[in-house]
Amino acid sequence: MESYHDSHADIQGRDTRDVEAVAASIVQQKRERNERQRDLDIESQVREHLAAAQDILAEDPEAARMVLEDVHYILRDDGDLAEVLNRNSGMLEDKAGLDPARAAEVRSRFRRQQRMHDRGGRLPSVEQEYTTLLYIARALDYYSAVSEMTPYAPITLEQLDVAGVTRADNPIPVGRRRLPKGTKLDPEDAAREIPHESCDHILCIALPRSGKDSTLTNIGMNLWRQHGYKYISVFDDGRMETPMISIPNDDPGILKNLERLGQEPRAFDAEVFVPSTPGIPEQLPANFREFTIGIDTLTPHLILRLAGVRTTDATAEDRIEQALNKTLEGSGQVPELVARIQQLAKAQDTEIQWTEKKDKHTTGGDGSTHVETYSARYSMSRSKALENAAARLSKLAGDGLVTGADAETNIDMAEVIADQKKAAVLCANFMPAGMEGLKYTLIDLWLRLIFRARDENPRLPRVALEMRELKNIAPSKTGDVRYKDAIKGLRQTIFFLSTQGGSRRILMLGSTQKLNDVYKPVRTNMATKILLRLGEEEIDTLDRSYNFSWAQKETLTNFRIGMGMLIAGGEKTYPIEWRGAPCGLGLGDQHWLDRYGLARGARVLQSQTAAWPPSDGKRDGWWVHVPDASVRDIGDRPQMGDHYSEWYLLESDFPDGTDPDDVDRALVEEVLAERQEYPTPSDIHLADIDWGNVRKVSFTDEGASRFDRVTDALGDANLSVDLWPWMLTQADKWRDESVRKNATDVLEAVEEHAPTSYSELEDYVDVSRQSISNYLQEEEPLDGCLDKDGKEYIVTDLGRQAMKADWDAVADAVQVEEEKPDTEFDFDE
To answer: Among 304, 524, 551, 604, which is disulfide-ready with 597 (CB 3.0 to 4.6 Å)?
Structure first.
């Protein structure tokens, strides 16, 4: 035994106090636990009896009387009853919400009941006895509400004691777990915390309109508000839903939910970042910010991605890297980068040199280290991919999105994350036709910049990264999605974040309607699942992983909106009533900008059929246009537009006796503040947009000018620049019009007949099998326009663009452009 102690003593348990003290403490803890359990058993019995009496009181008063007699004697044994019945304690008034006179009456009735029960008498009114017992039981904390006897346990976010995370002294629940009326479980033991110490990603799955986005935003707000996370939302489906986080929630159903949970609507203090592109409205709320992309934040891969270039040229990224590095060493401006890429796109011979250290075993054995220099030469062919990238980059610079390294509007993601008190929203919903696919590339860029910032500076706040409807940006299948190339790259970035983001303290919040719609490597890395109302098919899918019981399947099917199950740490916790998002969400019946106006305290006409003057303003003689504080006659109806419907205030909204001449900006702001139901931390007044970064530039290069003119014309026609082979041959010759006609015939035949071979396709068109094969080669017209779905050929999105294109108009535009003088950019090599 002695040797055992000698060798294993260090790993044995130890008491930190005297044995007698430790033993006494353990016994005391068990005694307290047993007493608490007895109290819970009694509380459970009282709730069940009161609920039973409520159910049978109308049908069988005598049976109810017997149940209430049991409750009476249980309450008489409560140690706190004497204090409740003491009129000087105020306990009955405080706990049961009674005024002194009513409380005195309840005390008197209970004492009368005591005397009658002691004498074996019969109480005249069972309803009165029931009401009296309810008041006494409420004061003794046996239940919280007569209408809902069931107790609830809080669902909160995990409390952490780690650097960079705020520990909330009083964590706000993000939901409440409903317990059975007869539960003997302590609500403290039934409470659950959602883990986030390691930034476990969260995926919410539910049928449409079941509360997915609300639940995610609800959790994200607490991460931001109480735990020190930077909240960033990067995607919605184009309906301007994510910018709504800047206003308090105005959905009637969620307002009732917040009231049940003892909370109020609350907006994020948020900045909405809008890429500087054509199509931005002339007026936006003041918390909208323009951003541009400085070339110093780009990588060769992202440049090709921004340009929408698909290439098999293995040297393309190397050439762009060389051009980018030299540009940043030089002017740091877009024209130099474009010109360098154009020059490196030409066919050229290249020499590379490198040095190697040689040790004594390979250099003769004198003990010294020798350095030898080697060189190698190789030829690089002309790169259409680089020419395409240069053309697209210059177009994006002309549109105002891509800028030099020193532009003040350039996004600095480290600064964005460092400003933890403000949430950030990427809003790429104003893209003009032909640029929609760029939205996904911008999301990809943001995700990469977020990761880079957190990777380089772990002192930055943690990031809660919200991505709604993951199936749109990380789909399990890309065969039927638009902008396939951009989404494939974005999906890979999201997968990378799902595996590496947690270690950089980036927590992803995602939602989907069906689990299998999300890329499997992404969904399997989202450890915490929230399940709301689900269909039978989806339950069967999830059952393969979580082995639901029959009762759990029934519960998932019958959840009402906002109810759900939490799966975390191997446990299933349900049913949970999730708190609705305190901030605004998307509403299909209201324009987003109208809701900003209403949240600001203004009035907005939301329908052409709305009465004017409104029913509460028939005596008004004038109204005020809020943005410019101008006074207008009541006979002039506020204008409604596709984007902005005029925000206004009525004469009756102002203090009595206000004359039109008294109205100024300060008075309008006072009235708006008075009318606001809940505050908006962000400045959301309507501002004129004069960002003014849109400009027109052109670049020429002797070997690529014709190619540039074609890609510019394609961009102006809202066509992909990947369609340049429809206008040019690989030798920079104009493509014959007959080739475009033949290629169009091939696409139309594939669309109609879905052939399985060239020989079958040849039967439908007046084009030879060899010509069809030639058209499908790289940098030929049908390159990227056809794909295979199983055995059948199908037309891709690029092919559909080609079919619908007005090629005569594109050709005319190229000829017109050819007559215009170009601007040269020269630099010393």
So the answer is: 604
Output the domain CATH number for residue 768.
1.10.10
Indicate whether 662 and 723 sit together in one domain. Answer: no
| Residue 514 confidence class, pLDDT cut points 50, 70, 90 | very high
Q: What is the pLDDT of residues 312-323, one digit of tens each?
A: 566 788 888 989
Let me know if 614 is exposed, middle or buried by CB neighbors in 10 A (0-12, 13-18, 19+).
Answer: middle
Among residues 124, 116, 126, 125, which one has the least CA distance to residue 57? 126
- Give the pLDDT band (50/70/90) at residue 6: low
DSSP 8-state assignment for residue 704: T
Residue 781 maps to a domain: yes
Do 26 and 134 sit in the same domain of this protein? yes
Range of the domain at 74: 20-139
Dist CA 185 CA 706 (whole Å): 78
φ/ψ of residue 561, rounded to 5 = -60, 130
What pLDDT score was predicted for residue 698? 43
Number of domains observed in the structure of the chain: 3
* Sequence-ordered list of residues with C-beta below 8 angstroms from that of 468, at least 6 positions apart, any chain: 212, 213, 216, 233, 235, 236, 237, 241, 242, 510, 511
230 or 85: whose pLDDT is higher? 230
DSSP 226: H
- Whether 646 is in a domain gets the answer yes
Q: Are residues 645 and 732 in the same domain?
A: no
- Asked whether residue 83 is domain-assigned, the answer is yes
Same domain for 762 and 655: no
* pLDDT value, residue 377: 66
Listed range (295-299, 409-413, 464-468, 676-680) with the worst mean pLDDT: 295-299
Residues 785-813 as b/e (b if ≥16 CB within 10 A, e otherwise) read: bbbeeeeebebbbbbebbbebebeebbeb
632 and 725 share one domain: no
CB 213 within 8 A of CB 158: no
Whose CA is closest to 267, among 585, 681, 591? 681
Q: Write 566-570 long-range contacts (CB < 8 A, 24+).
A: 566/155, 566/175, 566/192, 566/194, 566/528, 566/529, 566/530, 567/528, 567/529, 567/530, 567/531, 568/192, 568/194, 568/195, 568/200, 568/527, 568/528, 568/529, 569/195
637 and 733 housed in the same domain: no
CA 155, 159, 165, 170 torsion: positive or negative? positive
pLDDT band at 818 (very low <50, low <70, confident <90, very high): very low
| Residue 819 banded pLDDT, cuts 50, 70, 90 | very low
Looking at the DSSP bridge assignments, the partners of residue 567 are 529, 572
DSSP summary character for residue 182: T
Pairing of strands 370-380, 563-568: unpaired
- Which pTM value belongs to this model? 0.77
- Among the candidates 675, 698, 730, a domain finishes at 675
Task: Among 81, 111, 139, identify where a domain stops.
Answer: 139
* Backbone φ, ψ for residue 294 (5° rounding): -75, 145
**520 pLDDT band (50/70/90 cuts)?**
very high
Q: Is the pLDDT of residue 551 over 80?
A: yes
Same domain, 665 and 748: no
Report how far residue 756's alpha carbon sits from residue 742's, in angstroms, rounded to the nearest whole number.
19
Q: Is 247 exposed, middle or buried (0-12, 13-18, 19+ CB in 10 A)?
A: buried
Rounded Cα–Cα distance for residues 99 and 107 (Å)? 12
Bridge partners for 194 per DSSP: 157
Does residue 609 lie within any of the structural domains? yes
The one-character DSSP state at 728 is B
pLDDT-based confidence at 815, cuts 50/70/90? low
* Cα–Cα dist 704/688, whole Å: 40
Evaluate the CA torsion angle 9, 14, 16, 18 in order and state its sign: negative
**Tens digit of pLDDT for each residue in 672-687?**
999 999 999 999 999 9
* pLDDT over 90 percentage in the chain: 41
